[in-house]
Amino acid sequence: MCHSVSKPSAIRRRPRYKGMLLTLTIVLLGTLMANARDELIEIEVDGMLRSAIVSRPDQLDAAARLPLVFAFHGSAWNGRLMQTTTQFAARIDQEHLIVVYPHGSGPTNILSWNAEYCCSFALERDIDDIRFVDRLLATLHERYPIDPDRVYATGFSNGGMLTYRLAIERPEVFAAVAIVSGAMYPSQTMSEVPVPLLLIHGTHDNIIPYEGGWGALRTLSGRTEPAVSTSEAADFWVRNNSCQASSAILTHERNARILTYSSCANDAEVVFITLLEGTHAWPTITSSSDTFLLTDEAADLFTGLFDASTGDALPWDVFESGIDATRAIWEFFQRH
Length: 336
Fold this sequence. Notes:
two-stranded antiparallel sheet; 11-stranded mixed sheet
């Protein structure tokens, strides 16, 4: 029986059986991106058919143990869109890793996750996505040569909220996590188990505001609790990981402000990246040279280039903005 991986299966109710009914279907889809191979896994959880795309190296060495990255999509997305957006595929054979793109739940391919406070279908139906991740991880361990000490999670928006929840409720499972444009809430409590965490958020995010509050969350969440600010979310993990505030180091890259807390319990660093003027999108590096050359700042810059007495170095970052979030996340994971 073959399945199309381009459109996730809709949730289908099945008769309930005692305990957890687990079925597995793996469909080989050939080489779709680079030399990576995509496979579709379907498992039945709580009477619902759930699925995920697994992208793995074309050649697997049974003796090797590979890192595994969970990549959770945002609300109204699906696993395929997360795969296309993040472009981890370019690294799968090069870095020899496995990436799984789970599909959330919903009546069509417009899916969401139950992150406890958000979002949409999954929250309204009280879907147990923690159980789904538990069962999916167990299945992946059965089918692939995964290193249990190198299991990671990243998520965007609603998927970032689920990643926060997993870091709190399953801290022993993940070697590190990374959240892009996710939200945390005042009622969430610390596990006090250190988890290395990377947080990326744009100051011009109008869906999940950088300064906290509602944004678009009121219509998505169905709850009456606004999100905390991104700085408060970062501070939550600084305290959870017992980081020394004095260890914070501030650096800059293009329009990114990077605050790193490295002196933390169990080396569970916290890295907080603020994208100045960043929006609700998966960050990439974009060129700004065409528009920059028409500005007064460009005239001042090039005037300075011909004045050797200034001694100023050429700030090449003026020609680009943003960061390569996928690269930053994978390099962060590699440290843990």
